[in-house]
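Retry 2 of 3 after timeout on previous attempt. Resubmitting structure tokens to design endpoint.
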């Protein structure tokens, strides 16, 4: 019991100071790092060298690839703003609908899910939040909406890496595992669009009934048009593409519904800006979107879907021994196939297409790095804390205590363990590495279906993404509101509780049916 409480101290500290004392993340997270390091040294008796090298490995992982990809996403957004083509994209989006509810479904839910499926690492929050601000959303609100939207797609983010990792760790069947994850998260895939619309209604001072007036059917279809393609993709193809195919279908269907059911009807949720009378021809639209199109192209062509291209690029890497403790493996720096490098390259080429000089492009890249300074401090501290907690055994002690005290009711909290993994590390993939084997072993001990509980870990990890300090840091950077982490945490924590509760019930009843 004592070890459980002590292991939770860095997490408890972050929750308290971020939510109640309103301390900015770039100040709070380094303190949590110090707490974790001192506990690892004096309570878990980890050698000082191992604590220090664990910290160094955390710094390396935070900078490459996590901070790199976030800087890249912010860079592309800032570049398109600089060239004035963001106004063109804004006009294109508003031409679909001026209704904020529809725009949130298309940008935060559909496009955000697509970016998660393609790149992950914060791009699904950074780029959509920036676009929402550009079309007229209040920055803090845009950040909160994108965090809530970036949940169920996370299980299959970065071409399915969290699920693929869980499958590799446990050697489970890919199709069955991926399908189980889609089934467990299905209720939330349908409910998240309703959350987004309700949030916009509340911000506009409307009742629930008024919030959904004219868009209830579109909202419902938006959720199902993501869930159904995701299910069939997982069942027939596997874990790599469910979020990509689901989000592409969702965007197309949502836009179609907006045109059919809403059209040019005015509502109380319309953006204040008038529609531009300027028509956007296809060529201008392609130029405006060229950086994002190139991001998509580069990420797809260098993914595991195209091994002929990925293979030669993936071998360009450097393995560096960093962590010195038991079970240490060299940390690999992939130089060409990491999303951050590809997104920056796409941004440079896109900037040239938009008639921006190389000097301006690199100047924008430099200013984007400067803009991200506080966010980089936050993320480095969070990932280093996670590494120290993981290597010292603190994270495992948290999970072991929860397993030991719940018994046959364990499935209720199985998703919560996955969520803790993501809260601490900021990564659904890291949660899979930490706890998938634990979930598998626990299922065998309790006589339950191992695939179902391993899937529960991945599903729970998507909920943890909402409140992860790393995700919140990305959101504040994208919306240019660094220092407002406490407001965002307070705005999203209730949704995390809803996700964790629903996932727990789904997993519990499903586990009993499958016994």
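Retry 2 succeeded. Sequence:
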């Amino acid at each position: 019991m004592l070890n459980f409480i002590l292991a939770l101290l860095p997490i408890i500290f972050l929750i308290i100071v971020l939510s109640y004392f309103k301390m900015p993340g770039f100040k709070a997270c380094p303190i949590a790092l110090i707490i974790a390091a001192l506990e690892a040294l004096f309570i878990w008796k980890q050698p000082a060298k191992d604590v220090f090298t664990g910290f160094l490995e955390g710094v390396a992982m935070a900078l490459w690839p996590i901070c790199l990809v976030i800087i890249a996403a912010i860079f592309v957004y800032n570049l398109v703003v600089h060239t004035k083509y963001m106004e063109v994209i804004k006009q294109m989006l508003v031409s679909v609908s001026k209704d904020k509810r529809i725009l949130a479904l298309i940008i935060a839910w559909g496009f955000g899910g697509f970016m998660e499926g393609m790149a992950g690492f914060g791009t699904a929050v950074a780029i959509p939040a920036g676009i929402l601000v550009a079309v007229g959303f209040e920055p803090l609100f845009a950040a909160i909406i994108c965090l809530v939207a970036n949940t169920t797609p996370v299980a299959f983010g970065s071409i399915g890496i969290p699920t693929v990792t869980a499958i590799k760790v446990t050697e489970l069947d890919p199709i069955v595992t991926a399908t189980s994850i889609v089934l467990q998260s299905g209720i939330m895939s349908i409910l998240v669009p309703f959350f987004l619309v309700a949030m916009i209604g509340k911000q506009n001072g409307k009742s629930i009934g008024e919030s959904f007036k004219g868009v209830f059917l579109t909202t419902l279809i938006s959720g199902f048009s993501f869930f159904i393609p995701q299910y069939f993709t997982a069942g027939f193809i596997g874990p790599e593409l469910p979020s990509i195919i689901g989000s592409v279908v969702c965007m197309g269907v949502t836009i179609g519904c907006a045109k059919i059911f809403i059209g040019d009807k005015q509502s109380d949720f319309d953006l204040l800006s008038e529609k531009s009378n300027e028509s956007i021809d296809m060529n201008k639209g392609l130029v405006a979107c060229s950086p994002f199109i190139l991001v998509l192209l580069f990420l797809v062509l260098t993914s595991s879907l195209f091994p002929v291209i990925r293979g030669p690029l993936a071998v360009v890497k450097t393995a560096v021994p960093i962590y010195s403790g038991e079970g240490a493996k060299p940390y690999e720096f992939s130089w060409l196939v990491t999303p951050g490098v590809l997104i920056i390259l796409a941004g440079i080429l896109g900037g040239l297409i938009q008639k921006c000089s190389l000097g301006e492009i690199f100047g924008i890249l430099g200013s984007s790095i400067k803009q991200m300074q506080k966010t980089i401090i936050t993320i480095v501290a969070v990932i280093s804390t996670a590494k120290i907690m993981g290597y010292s055994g603190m994270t495992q002690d948290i999970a072991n205590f929860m397993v030991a005290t719940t018994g046959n009711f364990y499935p209720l909290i199985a998703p919560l363990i996955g969520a803790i993994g993501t809260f601490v590390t900021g990564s659904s993939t890291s949660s899979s590495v930490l706890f998938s084997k634990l979930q598998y072993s626990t299922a065998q001990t309790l006589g339950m279906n191992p695939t179902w509980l391993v899937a529960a870990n991945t599903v729970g990890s998507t909920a943890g993404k909402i409140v992860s300090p790393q995700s919140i840091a990305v959101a504040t950077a994208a919306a240019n509101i660094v220092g407002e982490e406490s407001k965002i945490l307070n705005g999203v924590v209730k949704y995390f509780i809803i996700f964790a509760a629903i996932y727990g019930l789904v997993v519990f009843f499903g586990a009993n049916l499958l016994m």
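Attempt log closed. The beta strands are 317-320, 331-334.
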